[in-house]
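User: Quick sanity check before I run a bigger batch. Here is a single chain. Can you write out its predicted 3D structure?
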Amino acid sequence: MIARLEGVLRVRELQSVVLDVGGVGYEVEVPLSTLASLPETGARVVLFTHLMVREDAHTLFGFLQTRDRDLFRRLIRVNGIGARLALAMLSTMAADELAGHISGGNIAALTRIPGIGKRTAERVVLELGERLQDLGFGPAPGASPLGAAAGIEHEAAAALEALGYRAIDAEKMIAAVRGQAETTEALVRLALRSTLRG
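Assistant: Done. Predicted structure follows.
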């Protein structure tokens, strides 16, 4: 099991990065929250990783904090939650917010995540609801819808900057699609599409 990688960040894309570790380039899939917090390419980075081995592929998933990786590992143990969906969950919400909604049984908030229906949300809450505090996650956040929207826009702008856009351009891209998406991932995709159309 590859549990940790330390190396030079060579490539960043919307869902993955390439980390050069001793001359070997590791492609690592990351959530938007991790992507937005990474330094510029060429900088040294430490990622805590989870290796998923399948017959047709070995896939690395990376996170800046061990507790985010541990939450990912808990999520993929839930029936119906695969690695891609768990990554989408951590891209849509910051780990603290996601864990808070799970611990608080906030089904409505969880079903706003693309790919999560009511039954799946209920299963996640049932299986993980009382088991996340040992990872260091606190109670459900009491953010207002307005505050949540501002948080999503901030994360989306950071993700666009991580992809190489200037801060002023990222803000303009977000402003062009403001209010059209309820998750960070969806807002980033809409902003990128609007740029392509323009």
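The longest helix spans residues 145-162.

User: Great, the batch can go ahead then.
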